[in-house]
Amino acid sequence: MADIPDFLNDTSLLLPNSPISIPSDSSTLVIRETISNAYRTIAEKIGPHNENLDSEPFFSKKTTTALTDLGGPATVYAVLYTGKLFTKREDKVSNSRARGCWVLAGNVLELLLERREAGVSEREVLWEALLKPWKIDSIEKSALDIATRAEARHFLVLPSVQSFVQALWKTGRKISDPMLVDSPLSTRKAKFKRITEIITTPRFQNTTTVIMNFAFLALYTYVVNCTDYKSGAPNISEWSLYLWAFGFLIQEFKKMRDMKSIYFRIPSSYITLSFPSILFFAFIARAFNVTFSGPMFLEFDLLSLTSLLLYANTIIWLDSNRACGKTVIVFNAIMSRSLWFLPLILAVTIGTGQAIWSAEKGGAAVESVLILSTLSSSFTGRLLIAYTVIATLLLVSLLIASFSACYYQLVPSLEAEYALYFTRKATGLFHSVYVFPPPSNVMQVIIRKVSQHVLRKRNSIVWIEHMMWWIMFAAFVICVVSWEIVLKMIGPVKRAMAKSYTKLRTWIHCSPQSSSFYPPSSTHFSSFLQIEHLKDAIEPEERALNRDLQLGKIVDTLLRIETKLHEFDSRIETLERLSQERHLSLDTKLTSLESVSRIQHGTLTHVNQMQVDTVGAVTKVEKTIVERLNKVEDTQIEGIKKLEYKQLEIEKKIRETLPKMMEKEVEVEKRLDMVEHVVVRHDIDNETVDWFGRAM
């Protein structure tokens, strides 16, 4: 094995114009010899001009057994590498031979699984054949890496390969030791190892990436809609947005480096690369604006343009799901096969623009012309409507037809395309050195570069990188949380102090001693208050100009004064607009008051008339009451006179009967005296007295 065979230095290897160039490094002798033997076997079976790869000699059991006996699991890598070398020549024969290599690698893998020993699991054989790294051209690669780079769809769609990729997606680096038994978490080192195994799995990395991407979408929506980013310096949320954009750029550059040959052939890559690039240019425009106090139009347009790409990118973030992944594959295929549609859209857009320009030559906008319905009476208007309708129908029909044709061409091979897409994603996350998604990968890149300059040993670099990353991440979280808490605590205090200060100034300026310094107009009173407030704010800056003679401080002070003057101009404009609105509101109020006064005058006259009518009615009622009272008094007087007359008559009768009664009483007394005398004298008993009494 120490001597390199002569055929390894031969670049033809039994085939004319062979694309094979075997590396001459003696450290890779075993794998180079296996590749050469595999290529020789394939060349002998296929022949120099044989395009029929479905023939029995090529896919026979004997050929598969011969290749399997060459080097075991290394043969799978060798056959896949040979097929990758065939793909470098873009001719029909080489492409058919490459497809034959994919099928042959699958047959070799199946035979290896059949030949495994009793104590060896299928996972171990697959790891040795698919994921074990082989050093070629000073780069360690595995069979899965070669298969994804060469787009070996026939090989990747095998059930054994797909089950292994799914296990790789779920378990991550634990797949390198399939017989590993989960040890109890008794020590801190074991716990740290378990946590590291979990966070380095491709599924965990993808889940955290999706969550952080949707958090970035929420942050972008908050910054664009709820933050006053058009005036003043950027706040912490806007800086976080730009830091996130840098993380996305780093992630896309890493993908670009890993997939050099196919990155720009995937249409979805332009979407994932465009929105962080636009945000990066928005950050540059924002920095220029804060530095030189320029206009805000550029970053506003860039942030608005990002929204469409950002919302369209959400389905690409969910490509690990089978349905979303197939949707992304169909989108990429349709967009790559429908590029002829872009010149049509450009031509229709230019034609519509020319038609609109010709319709607007008269001085009226197209919107007003359409609203006033004057297009129907002119030839230009009818032409514009007809052109727009026909062009829209034609473009929509062509687009639907193109998309349908591309979709039906892709449906038979959609499973193979998804197997390639998912395997590429799983292996990319498995080999990724950036465990955490943006924006944390920015800090990880910085820490990694610093660690490489500090220490050259790999173990020390990795240890320092992990420790510094956790320290930086914890410090970042603490700073953000504390800053938000401080802002929430200081904000109400500042607002209360500003409110009390404005109340004090209005009380001072409204006092009689200071009323002579201000004009009597009440509409511009608030504007003068704002002017005085700005003057008081500018006075410290003027004193600083007198104190500081250095050029840098003078320039900074002038810039601050200029910004405050801009604010003063904007406030004056707002005050003028408010005064105009107040004048308009006063006019409307005066008209409403006049109408109300007219209504009140009418109601008052009506009330006066009603009062006169009621007074007349009351006088009539009083007259009738007085008459009735007089009548009642007359009747009462007559009744009193009658009663007095009757009383006199009664008194006369009493006077007449009184002497008679006196006489009767005298007679009775005489009789009683006589009776008492008889009783005493004759002792009349009680019975006779009783009888006498009853007789009396």
TrEMBL record:
Q: Which InterPro entries match?
A: TRP_calcium_channel
Q: Which UniProt keywords apply?
A: Membrane, Transmembrane, Transmembrane helix
List the source organism: Paraglomus occultum
Q: What is this protein called?
A: 4741_t:CDS:1
Q: Which domain of life is it from?
A: Eukaryota
Q: Where are the transmembrane segments?
A: 262-285, 297-318, 339-357, 384-408, 429-447, 467-487
- What PANTHER family does the record tag this protein with? MEMBRANE CHANNEL PROTEIN, PUTATIVE (AFU_ORTHOLOGUE AFUA_6G11300)-RELATED, NONSELECTIVE CATION CHANNEL PROTEIN
Keyword Manganese tagged: no
